[in-house]
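User: Sequence in, structure out. Go.
Assistant: Echoing your sequence, followed by the structure tokens.
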Amino acid sequence: MNEPESLEDRGAEVVIDALAYLKRAHPPQRHRQGGARVLPEESSQDALCEMEARGLQTGSGVVEDACKTLVAQRLKLSGTRWIPHGAQAILTMRGWDQSDRFDEAWALVAATYHSEIHVLANVIDLTPTPMRKPRARASR
């Protein structure tokens, strides 16, 4: 007889499913059509003015700055190495934080994954106590 899997056993799967749901429920806005394109020189100034009037980005500075502050400052620390899953986990939460959406996103993840903790009675603390430094002898 197989025991049903507990939420604790499938914790990572539950979080991944919750994030996939959020991605489907809140798709990125589709206000841009197509990728970057090269504009003919005679119409480039008019096109840039039109894009700015519509509130669209006309330069790469915003993207470059996001790469620097979101990714490079965290993942390129001296001596660090990352596997893809670990880096993605860090960048996902960093993205939430830098976009001021961390509390809302964490609440959704926390609502999905919950584990009950039981504190045992009569537990003896085995934490080692720090050793005292010997007193310095007074010189004569």
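User: And one key feature?
Assistant: Residues 15 and 112 are 7 Å apart (CA to CA).
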